[in-house]
């Protein structure tokens, strides 16, 4: 277990964040040497009714979905069903003969986007941006949201296919930019497996890992456990946020046509810990080998070239890191701005869900919260600094 003073400090910092209205509530878990050494929850899942955060509270993962999607690609890779240098057009024809934006003009891309480009965010596919590629991607998300509850909602494959019809922001492999690549990966899993993406994840990941509270929607009996989302109200407090974003139904109360490989999952902290533990155990969980150790090593390694890394390094909050397979990887702890170790990897989500695995320290930290535009919050860094600086 954590030392008493360390545990007390973690509880104090979390409570201060809640009391100051930075967040409404959250839960944190620390795993060391494969065993849980600390868990704590505080604050509210619903400020209006006073419903507290509990251990079985369900949180929207948003981009913390991405490492799960990368893992699904590793399953296909191990089985020889894909080659990472396969062109995306092999599975989704609209990616053939794509155009790219250069100096405001559309020209033929130097080569086709590959699965490897998607894994490393070097595809040229963006969420949005000032150029034509970003503008068209943003417009597609607007359409996706507008059709969410219609009789003709956009599917996983339609969304990925429509992305391929638009231009790229840069030649595949020539740069790095955070974007929609993971959503296309989900569609590729559908094309290869012949299953809906959510079905594949349930069969190949969630059932073997006993992640029974993880998925793209919640049946009625689980909905009361879903934490509500809050945002700054502009006066130092918090107000409810209930909008749909990136094609995700915020209430998660129906089976979605669009199962977003980049943002769509909801989960509990215990379910997320089963996934992170599997990775820390070199692909094994409770006697089940989901991935081979060499595959996990590849999955959790930095993959960017020098040119790609230059663009990634512009992401100020991730100094001291590189990127690979939909995750950050710490490469220079001295530059990171918070305490950590070389080889540490993980990711966060738009609403603040966060995990990090540090193989060198045999340490995992999970933090679950629902705050609009959160990503990695200040309180998240404070909590991890306490953990990483502690002597176990």
Secondary structure blueprint with pairings:
Elements: H1 4-19, E1 25-32, E2 35-46, E3 51-52, E4 59-60, H2 66-78, E5 99-102, E6 105-108, H3 115-120, H4 132-146, H5 156-165, H6 181-193, H7 197-206, E7 229-232, E8 238-241, E9 266-267, H8 269-280, E10 284-285, E11 288-289, H9 293-299, H10 306-312, E12 321-324, E13 327-330, E14 345-348, E15 354-358, E16 363-369, H11 378-388
Antiparallel strand pairs: 1-2, 1-16, 2-3, 4-9, 5-6, 7-8, 10-11, 12-13, 13-14, 14-15, 15-16
Helix pairs in contact: 1-11, 2-6, 5-6
Overview of this structure, please?
The protein is α+β, with helices and mostly antiparallel strands and 392 residues long. It folds into 2 domains: 4-67 and 212-388, Beta-lactamase (3-Layer(aba) Sandwich); 73-199, DD-peptidase/beta-lactamase superfamily (Beta-lactamase, 3-Layer(aba) Sandwich). Helices cover 31% and strands 18% of the residues. The chain contains 11 helices and 16 strands. The chain has an 8-stranded antiparallel β-sheet, with helices on both faces.
Query: What is the name of the CATH architecture of the largest domain?
Result: 3-Layer(aba) Sandwich
Strand content: 15-25%
Q: What number of structural domains do the residues give?
A: 2
Helical amount: 25-40%
Report, as a whole number of angstroms, the end-to-end distance: 8 Å
Structural class estimated from helices and strands? alpha+beta
Low-confidence spans = none
The CATH H-level homologous superfamily of the largest domain = DD-peptidase/beta-lactamase superfamily
Q: CATH topology of the largest domain, what is it called?
A: Beta-lactamase
Count of individual beta strands? 16
- Helix segment tally: 11
Mean pLDDT: 97
Overall shape: globular
Main sheet: which strands, in order across?
3-2-1-16-15-14-13-12
Using only C-alpha atoms, the radius of gyration works out to 20 Å
Q: Sketch the topology as an H/E string, one letter per element.
A: HEEEEHEEHHHHHEEEHEEHHEEEEEH
CATH class of the largest domain: Alpha Beta
**Largest sheet composition:** 8 strands, antiparallel
């Amino acid at each position: 277990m954590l030392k008493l003073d360390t545990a007390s400090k973690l509880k104090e910092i979390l409570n201060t964040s809640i009391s100051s209205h930075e967040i409404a509530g959250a839960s944190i878990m620390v795993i060391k040497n494969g065993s849980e050494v600390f868990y704590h929850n505080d604050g509210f899942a619903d400020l209006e009714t006073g419903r507290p955060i509990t251990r079985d509270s369900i949180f929207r993962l948003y981009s913390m979905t991405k490492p799960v999607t990368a893992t699904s690609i590793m399953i296909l890779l191990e089985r020889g069903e894909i080659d990472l240098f396969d062109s995306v057009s092999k599975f989704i024809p609209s990616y053939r003969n794509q155009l790219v934006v250069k100096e405001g003009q559309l020209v033929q891309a130097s080569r086709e986007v590959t699965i490897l480009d998607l894994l490393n965010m070097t595809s040229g596919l963006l969420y949005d941006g000032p150029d034509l590629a970003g503008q068209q991607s943003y417009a597609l998300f607007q359409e996706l949201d507008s059709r969410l509850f219609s009789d003709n909602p956009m599917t996983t494959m339609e969304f990925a296919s429509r992305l391929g019809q638009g231009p790229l922001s840069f030649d595949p492999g020539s740069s790095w930019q955070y974007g929609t690549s993971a959503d296309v990966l989900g569609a590729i899993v559908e094309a290869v497996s012949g299953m809906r993406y959510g079905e594949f994840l349930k069969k190949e990941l969630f059932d073997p890992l006993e992640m029974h509270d993880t998925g793209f929607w919640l049946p009625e009996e689980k909905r009361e456990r879903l934490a509500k989302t809050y945002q700054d109200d502009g006066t130092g407090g918090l107000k409810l946020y209930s909008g749909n974003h990136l094609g995700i139904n915020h209430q998660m109360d129906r089976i979605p046509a669009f199962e977003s490989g980049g943002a769509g999952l909801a989960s509990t902290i215990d379910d997320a810990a089963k996934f992170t533990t599997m990775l820390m155990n070199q692909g094994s969980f409770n006697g089940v080998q989901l991935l081979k150790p060499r595959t996990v090593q590849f999955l959790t390694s930095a993959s960017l070239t020098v040119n790609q890394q230059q663009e990634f390094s512009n992401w100020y909050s991730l100094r001291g890191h590189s990127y690979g397979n939909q995750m950050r990887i710490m490469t220079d702890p001295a530059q990171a701005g918070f305490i950590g170790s070389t080889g540490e990897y993980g990711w966060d989500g738009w609403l603040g869900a966060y995990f990090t695995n540090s193989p060198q320290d045999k340490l995992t930290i999970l933090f679950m919260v629902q705050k609009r535009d959160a990503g990695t919050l200040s309180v998240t860094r404070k909590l991890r600094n306490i953990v990483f600086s502690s002597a176990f």
